[in-house]
Amino acid sequence: MIYLDNAASMKMLPNAIEVLERSLLEDFANSSSQHSLGKGIAKKIESCRRDFVHLVDGDEKNNLIFTSSATEGNNQIIRGAKEGEILYCRADHPSVTSPVTNLVNIERIQEISVGVDGLIEIDKLLQSVNERTSLVILTHVNGQTGIVNDVNYISKKIKEISSRVHVHVDGVQAFGKISVSLQDGFIDSYAISGHKIGGPKGVAGLFYKKGITLSPLLWGGGQEGGIRSSTVAAPLIFSFAQAARDVVKSVDENLIKIKEINVNLRNEIASCCQVPFSASQTSPYILTFIVPGISSDILMRHLEREKIFISSKSACSSKVQGKDEVFMALHIDEKFHKNVLRISFSYSSSIEEVKVVSNRMKAIIDELSSLMR
Amino acid sequence: MYNTLVINVDELWLKGKNRPLYYRAIKGHIKYILKREVKEAFELNNQGQRLVASFEQSIEENLLETLLKIPGIHSIYPAMQVESDINLIVEACSKEVEQLDGSPVSFKIQTKRSNKKFPMNSMEISREVGHLLLEKHSHLKVDVHHPQLLIDVKILANGSYISSKKYLGIGGLPVGMSGHLITLLSAGFDSPVASYLMSKRGCKQTFIFFYAYPFVGDEVKEKIVDLYKVLSQYQIDAKLYIIPFGDVQSEISKGCKVEYRTLLFRYYMLASASLLAQKLGADALLTGDSLGQVSSQTIGNISLLDSLSSYSVFRPLLGHNKVEIIDLARTVGTHDISVIPHDDACSLFAPKHPVIKPDKLYLKKFVEMNPMDAELEKALLEAEIIEYS
User: Phi and psi of A128, rounded to 5°?
Assistant: First the structure.
């Protein structure tokens, strides 16, 4: 099997599995309990917390709460936003767009536009920021396209206009894959996710700047400094921390390897596919491409028959509309909305895998194209 | 409150010498349902021309609904069976009255006394029961011409039966009396309705669905299974064969003219269904074709496919309009499933200009040169067989 849908979810790293297995057996007590079993676990959790903050150079200015998912983290920030205008992008992940469009009064919403190259139009964004703005949401690496926005620069410029603005970054596809630093202190909160970096599902983290108040989504026993009441999921956190330490340590060397694989794949598929976003602007872990004329899910199913798994968004039906909001925001022509596919790599992806996938894909595309004559 | 079901069978007057066979078939189907749905012991007996099912306790309402789907049943009267004692009879009639909401209602007692041992005659019984009911329920009044509530009292040898409501079944002939069809099932409105119509005429059916994976996804398969479950209600132990057909379609498309694709798919589907018919000893094939609805259903195309088929193809919807079919789908219970927009055929294959008046020679030549026996056999062997009861 060749699994290339890692932006959706990644196989757990062996170290992380080992930590999880052991912890499930040993760390059964409740970290809020007052006896030594509970307190022992609580101490280990604090140690992990410090590790995470350290991994993003945040030791001085930042803290972190553990959540169940980045969706929870994004929701926490959006739902707790102060009065005022909120800026977001339609190309953001649904865990951003959905709470914004469903929970925020439409008069308060301002949209961030993206250029044809996929990058946030910074000048336009900055023009929309003023004293009425309360929250700006930025996506560090776009999950659909892999586009990398310079969130450190953008957040700095925003703060120059109005220091009142809360800048929140969705860093789900960035943390553990490209270099992430919260040292500058212009980013108020930053969401990350466990299962995207080889950790387990059900655990994630929300970095936040010391001094800001986060409104709780969940009320109860007062865990996580009162910000996120729930019994703290110690085994999942320990496993997540193990994965995080391992991957952040090797960010640079992994980046080189994955860049090579990415470029290789781009070359292989250039003859039959369109690749709208350039290698220089995107995280090499994500490659989105268009196969004109062939429904994305038919191609995906042909590949899955051969145990090759990649990502397709659409459900193929001539009776169902294919228009996709995110693709629209990214300036992908509506006629191609049913032809978009995404390949995303893990730390263990290889050139050999890419060769097999590109060969099979080209063969399948050939065969399907001949049926279209 | 009803512990008995009086079941009337349909089209009895047609049957003559076939009657014993007919009764056996319909009794068999009723017993099959009762065994499945009723936990306690029950009895199913012939009484005159009717079938009477007796239960130890009151039956559930959905049992009645389930039984009414059995082909061959004309109507069912849920009844209370009591000992032939006037007081018990009155008590049962009273229960019928109590079912209503208490607002003023007109009623009539209709009695038939087959058991001559009972001391009163029919008219006397009606009068006495009516009188006692009026005493008990002040909101009642008698109307012998147009009663709102008609209570039926039958005094038979083994007891008295009290009922008021008649529920109509779907009629027709019991399943199995009219042979065995292989039904080509697709996800639209038509073929499920066609299946229902032939269930009513007493045809046992085996369903076949041509699954074009990987050109379509498994949402389509799930939809078909849902449709099959609904249609199973009108059948006994009907099976569904899901035939992998994506590769076959691909193979066909490589060798034929684009505009003949859909027609040739239909040909090979009928050929595949014929293969299954042969293996199962079925008598004919069944499709949901309606004349002129889509390109493969022109008179030219239908006639040509027929001439090339080794089995008769039944098409009960040939004369139906689309609106009529959609209405029937509601009756059958398949409308809400069929309406979900999932293609069972892939638009990738669909020709822009499908042939309307086919060149018979071309088609005959093609199928002669490409019998695809091995591929069709293989597809049948790889079929996923679903049994739902």
Answer: -85, -10
